[in-house]
Design a protein that fits this description.
The chain is α+β, with helices and mostly antiparallel strands and 466 residues long. It has helices at residues 252-276, 311-319, 336-352, 358-368, 389-406, 408-422, 429-440, 445-453; strands spanning 2-3, 50-62, 67-78, 85-88, 92-98, 101-102, 104-107, 112-116, 127-135, 149-150, 154-156, 178-187, 191-194, 197-204, 207-218, 225-228, 230-237, 240-247, 283-288, 295-296, 304-305, 327-329, 425-427. It is an enzyme of class 3 (hydrolase).
């Protein structure tokens, strides 16, 4: 995520031992670690006891009244015998069935749907939980957040760290990734854009249902749909399928400018591949909304942008496809692994295009920094500061300094190995720190403590990349 005109605080609120590159392999989907919940930052998010494999979301949305109804089937695998379990959902629930059998349910609060199946769920046996629901998402709030972004002609479900609960039931924590099929029904004159590949579109009477599929594991907050009047451009560039969309509410001139900017995504993605390894997904693109969210978001495969995004913004959100999407945080406290990495890639891209060098940027940022940069532990900033400017700036500086300490060659190997090992899964700051020591062969404990955890600026010495 990158907020503009500047990043603001959240609204309201070892790997070691293996020495060769070939010794590491990305985990298979069924080898992913169990969800790590509750998260101390947001203890209501996510639910222990099961692992979601797939979401089949089928929502109908009325643009004028902003009424949403739907049925979502959640395929989950219990990690233990469960007599009850919970899902995160703000909407009103009409019925729940578990493997086709009606189940008892209650909303213990606005956020938690507690389900009691007719028979306890057996450990390790996949089950399908079908939830039918309805409501007006724009009237719903949770934890001081009102996240529904819509007008009478357009809707985009984009926000972080919370968005899923406004439009489908889920295990709403980044540590429980799943695959998605998303079907959205709305007036046939509207376009619908979502994650992954568009499977098809069917029209019946005055309504149309558009089906999108995300075959790579994805966290719940990165799932999205947009519906409205969009100009669409799709095709292939540099070996990747792309699907770009710009809101027609912006006007013809802005539409043209927006599409021209989104076309740069392919070139930027190719540069990122050279730095980080293969693009982790099957398709790419972007969407520019007219709804003035005030930020861009790295929705998996297809980031969403406010009007008139800059090249810097594109680099940031596309870098997130590796850092944040493919490699997701295991805990919200590790958010610097997303935002610091994306910030660093902005700086590197500018350098690669003949602009200011990364070393110069680091030196200038260090010399001009104020107390705001050092009065926070970015490896554990707290729930109300996960989008603090220091998380981005100091996170990017940490990586630039690390490159100076271990050298460009080892640093490049580190980033590529990080993605190769954890792609499709989740990771923590401690795992990155351990991997950096493994790749470089250096003791970096003092370095990481100073850059990530200390409450004062690191010493201006070579040991700290300065």
């Amino acid at each position: 995520m990158l907020r503009r005109p500047r990043i603001t605080a959240l609204l309201s609120v070892a790997l070691a031992g293996a020495l060769s590159y070939g010794a590491f392999a990305a985990p298979a989907p069924d080898e992913r670690a169990a969800p790590q919940v509750p998260d101390p930052y947001f203890p209501a998010d996510g639910n222990a006891g099961y692992d979601v494999q797939h979401y089949d979301i089928r929502d109908r949305y009325r643009m004028g009244s902003r009424f949403l109804s739907g049925v979502t089937t959640v395929r989950m695998v219990p990690g233990e015998q469960l007599s009850t379990f919970s899902l995160d959902l703000l909407l009103t629930v009409d019925a729940v069935r578990v493997d086709g059998v009606a189940a008892e349910f209650e909303k213990s609060n606005n956020h938690e749907l507690v389900v009691t199946p007719a028979e306890p769920l057996a450990e390790g046996e996949p089950v399908d939980v079908r939830v039918r629901y309805h409501g007006y998402p724009d009237r719903l709030a949770w934890g001081g957040e009102r996240n529904w972004l819509a007008n009478d002609r357009e809707v985009v479900t984009m926000n972080e760290p919370h968005m899923a609960a406004w439009w489908f039931p889920s295990n709403d924590h980044p540590s429980d990734k799943a695959r998605f099929d998303i079907r959205i029904t709305t007036a046939k004159g509207r376009e619908v854009i979502s994650n992954g590949v568009r499977v098809g579109r069917t029209v019946k009477g005055g309504l149309a249902t558009t089906h999108w599929r995300m075959t790579h594991p994805m966290t719940t907050y990165l799932a999205y749909f947009a519906a409205g009047d969009f100009i669409i451009e799709k095709g292939r560039a540099r070996g990747l399928r792309y699907y770009n969309a710009v809101s027609k509410q912006l006007g013809e001139r802005a539409e043209r400018q927006g599409l021209r900017m989104l076309r740069r995504s392919a070139r930027i993605t190719a540069w990122l591949e050279d730095e980080l390894g293969d693009y982790p997904f099957a398709t790419t693109g972007g969407l520019i909304t007219a709804l003035s969210p005030g930020f861009a978001l790295e929705n998996q495969t297809r980031p969403t942008y406010p009007s008139f995004p800059s090249v810097r913004l594109l680099v940031h959100e596309l870098a997130h496809q590796w850092f944040g999407d493919s490699v997701a945080v295991q805990r919200w406290q590790d958010i610097w692994l997303n935002e610091g990495f994306a910030t660093y890639m902005e700086v590197r891209y500018r350098e690669a295009q003949g602009g200011q060098t990364t070393k110069r940027w680091l030196r200038n940022a260090y010399e001009s920094s104020g107390s705001w940069l050092w009065n926070i532990e970015i490896a554990d900033p707290g729930p109300h500061r996960i989008f603090d400017p220091a998380v981005y700036q100091r996170g990017g500086m940490t990586l630039a300094a690390l490159r100076n300490v271990i050298g460009g060659q080892d640093f490049r190997r580190l980033l590529r190995r990080w993605v190769d090992v954890h792609g499709g899964g989740n990771a923590t700051s401690e795992e990155f720190e351990a991997l950096a020591e493994t790749v470089s062969g250096e003791d970096l404990g003092d370095f990481f403590h100073a850059w990530l955890r200390d409450d004062q600026a690191p010493p201006r010495t070579a040991d700290y990349g300065l």
